[in-house]
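USER: If only I could read backbone structure tokens as easily as an amino acid sequence. It would mean a lot if you studied the pair and described how this chain folds. Here is the record:
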Amino acid sequence: MIIFGTKGYLYQLAILTLLCGRCGNPAAHTLRKRVTKFTLFFVPLFPISAKYWTQCTFCGAEQKLTKEQAEQLTAQAVGGAGGPAYGQPHQQPYQH
């Protein structure tokens, strides 16, 4: 018998101060990444998909991002390009 499936991992990459498109407030936004991995006998082997998005901490609005947009915002958070960005990448997964 072979046991296989998928498991999701949620990573918080950075916390940025951005202008929310829904509420219009300059609020903190969390940049998150969800990775779904294929598992064999409950051991995660390789990623199947990755999705990126930001979430406003003021109103809870979410906005989907491409991988390139997420990488640009992560570089900004680490201190690359200008703009008011705060936080450091956090690679500890929140497991569901």
